[in-house]
Amino acid sequence: MNAADLAEAYFTAWQERDFTRLRTLVADDVTFAGPLAVIDGAEECVAGLEGMAKVLDRIEVRERLASESSVITWFDLHTTVAEPAPTANWMRVEGGVISEIRVAFDPRGILGS
């Protein structure tokens, strides 16, 4: 899979709560940094996404820009606890898996609940 395909598969698996599939898309030593967590390693990363999925309603992708080794996905994060949060997600792809994820959004609505 190329970088754009990996991003599509990642967001689909997360939204469908297919964490077994999601785990196959990230490197064992994946790093994640965002306003709610800084994580090292695949198991902790998937567990964090699984936790966030408890309040996830849907992901509305607005734009995706990809190169050979990275992808930026701009989307609205719809949750059951807050207004939609405009979100930027950047991923680095190495060796056919996601090796690095950086997320930016305003977490105040989610944290206020």
Explain the layout of strands and helices.
Blueprint: H1 3-15, H2 19-25, E1 26-33, E2 38-40, H3 42-53, E3 56-66, E4 70-79, E5 85-94, E6 97-104, H4 108-111
Parallel strand pairs: 1-6
Antiparallel strand pairs: 1-2, 3-4, 4-5, 5-6
Characterization of the model:
InterPro entries: NTF2-like_dom_sf (IPR032710), SnoaL-like (IPR037401). This is SnoaL-like protein. Residues 7-100 form the SnoaL-like domain. It holds the Pfam family SnoaL_2. By secondary structure, this protein is of the alpha+beta class. The chain has a single domain (3-107), classed as Nuclear Transport Factor 2, Chain: A. The chain is built from 4 helices and 6 strands. The chain has helices at residues 3-15, 19-25, 42-53, 108-111; strands spanning 26-33, 38-40, 56-66, 70-79, 85-94, 97-104. It has a 6-stranded mixed sheet with strand order 2-1-6-5-4-3. The longest helix has 13 residues, at 3-15. It starts with a helix and ends with a helix. The model has no long low-confidence stretch (mean pLDDT 95).
Architecture, CATH level 2? Roll
How many discrete structural domains? 1
**Class in CATH?**
Alpha Beta
- SS content category: alpha+beta
- Which segments are poorly predicted (pLDDT under 50) over 5 or more consecutive residues? none
Average pLDDT taken over every residue: 95
Question: So how many helices?
Answer: 4
- What strand order characterises the main sheet? 2-1-6-5-4-3
The biggest beta sheet reads: 6 strands, mixed
From the N-terminal CA to the C-terminal CA, the straight-line distance is 38 Å
Order of helices and strands: HHEEHEEEEH
Rg over CA atoms: 13 Å
Taken from the alpha-carbon principal axes, the silhouette is globular
Pfam family, one: SnoaL_2
Protein name: SnoaL-like protein
Domain SnoaL-like: 7-100
InterPro entries: NTF2-like_dom_sf, SnoaL-like
